[in-house]
Fold this protein.
Amino acid sequence: MSDVTTGYALELRNIHKTFNPGTINEKVALDGVNLQLEDGDFVTIIGGNGAGKSTTLNAIAGVWPVNQGSIIIGGTDVTSLPEHKRARFLGRVFQDPMTGTAKTMSIEENMAIAARRGKSRKLKWGVTKEEKERYKEMLKTLDLGLEDRLTTKVGLLSGGQRQAVTLLMASLQKPNLLLLDEHTAALDPKTAAKVLELSDKIIEGNHLTAMMVTHNMKDAIHHGNRLIMMHEGRIIYDVRGEEKQKLHVSDLLTKFEEVSGGEFANDRMMLS
């Protein structure tokens, strides 16, 4: 791990990843990905199945090593760091509401674990009165009535409530980068909209830099200040600011057809 002079919150330099190289199942997942995120950028990532969206997030998180390239988070080169050592830079929310929380532990215990992540653990473990008050105030902002259920086991919450709590946990330590990997895909449309609204609020309120993978083109256009489209392990479109706000789903479909030479055959994306 070394410090690198870069003005970016995240920099991906020529990232390559091939799974099962030299075998019949060889799959080029990332093919020279270059990306720079400014501090406070909220980027939505779209693309068909196998485009490299979640693979990019996994590369950043260190789920497995990349074959080539550098990953720099907040000026620190983390390329050779294992996943658990990158945790202090990152917050992450997954597609499955059951991931990211300990279901047999209470809401307050889960939040306390998130608050202590990366810090030295003392022998005495417990949730202090001050912490309880802080978590109560944070949960109140969700507007889901969870502030009165601090001792409820997380496993008893609905999918939407769990994702909302996981979002709070992921942002508790104000990470350098928040990764949202299709975090509303398993929720019904109404709950998904609520969780996305909370995501916006948490990202903006904490001035976080975030990346959100989604299959929903409308969500990709509506949320964040920047949108990138991926295809076959490469970034093929990168749009931001006012230009992004003027986008329509039809524009994205046209763009995809242009670069891929084919139609967007992803039903989930078309129906979204």
Remarks:
- The chain has ten helices and eleven strands.
- The radius of gyration is 19 Å.
